Amino acid sequence: MKNLISAFDFDQAELKTVFGLAKRMKQNPLSYRDLFNGKALGLIFEKPSTRTWVSFEVGFTTMGGHVIYLGPDDIQLGVREEVRDVARTLARYLDLIVMRTYSHELILEFASHFKKTVINGLSDLEHPCQAMADFFTIGEALGDFKNKKIAYIGDGNNVLNSLLILAAQLGAHLHYATPKSCAPQAAIVTRALKEAKRTKAKLVATTKPQEAVRGADIIYTDVWVSMGEEEKTKKQNCFEGFQVNRSLLKKAAKEVRVMHCLPAHRGEEITNDVIEGKHSIVFDQAENRLHVQKAIIVYLLRSERAGS
Ligand code: CP
Ligand code: NVA
User: Fold this and answer.
1) Any idea which architecture 129-286 has in CATH?
2) Which among 63, 124, 209, 268 has most CB atoms closer than 10 A?
3) Are 262 and 282 in contact, with CB atoms under 8 Å apart?
4) Catalytic residues
5) Ligand 1 geometric centre to CA of 154 (Å)
6) How many angstroms separate the Cα of 76 from the Cα of each of 72, 229, 308?
């Protein structure tokens, strides 16, 4: 039994296997249409979602499985009854769960009682499915991500945490510019840097967006205020100079590609003309959530299938 709760849960070989599988599934989706007949996937979402919800639901149903969405008012995890009771009950009905929570710890607690596959569909700490789809997209766009410069500009949030881990695992070069007070999680950075030594990845921190984007092949950004942080409106004042706009793009490589996990706040972290412009690959990136997550599910459930 294997989970995807942190991006650290997949090593380089596993990531490459999933990317290869995702490529084949994207090219030939109909070959996988009966794979999960009779299986059920639950989606426990405490926060709103467009891409994660729909891509998991479409992905699993088009592979023959059944999906049930459980929103914040449905099971009221930990409020109506204890997490361990919900987890043990749902384990009797479902084959796997995707969870989107405020607290990363809640996913870990749930997984310890569920004892079947759990996938993190975004927590306050990580967004591993997003980062996996992003590196798959970078591979598609650039041919390879080795010796390419990826620049992340903005908040040191869940998305950056998972991108840093995957860059480290895959040996990629990620230069990230965040305000000093919005750095990624220190424990993740420390562990990622240790891993980077082994894979020859470069993880370079700066507070200067112009430095991070110099010659970059990819510029990536995300919202300045994540879901659940809405109270911290003061945070936005830190981001002066961190907007991905035409003048910042001029410092990057001529053919730079621009990525954003979406939803975007146009006019804040990214301008409308950049997101609509010729460098933007944001909707290829959004599409790849579907293919990569299908591959993640196939990979995670394959040991159970092999035993059945
Ligand atoms: N990028 C992403 O996870 O989008 P949603 O919040 O719409 O799922
Ligand atoms: N960092 C953002 C990502 C949304 C997909 C958030 O957590 O709201």
Assistant:
1) 3-Layer(aba) Sandwich (3.40)
2) 209
3) yes
4) 100, 127, 130, 222, 261, 289
5) 17
6) 6, 20, 33
Strand intervals (E) in 213-255: 218-221
Which residue CA neighbors atom 4 of ligand 1 most closely? 51
Q: What is the CATH number of domain 7-126+287-307?
A: 3.40.50.1370
Task: Delimit the domains of the chain by residue range.
Answer: 7-126+287-307, 129-286
Note the ligand closest to the C-alpha atom of 51: 1
Helix, strand or coil for residue 69? strand
Tokens of 71: 């929103």
Match 């990819």 to its residue by tokens: 218
Residue 116 corresponds to which tokens in the numbers above? 């079947």
CB of 239 within 8 A of CB of 276?
no
Q: Give pLDDT tens digits for 76-135.
A: 898 899 999 999 999 999 999 999 999 999 999 999 999 999 999 999 999 999 999 999
Ligand 1 centroid to 213 CA: how many Å? 25
Rounded-to-integer distance, Cα 230 and Cα 226, Å: 7
Ligand with the closest atom to the CA of 158: 2
- pLDDT (tens digit per residue) in 170-199: 999 999 999 999 999 999 999 999 999 999
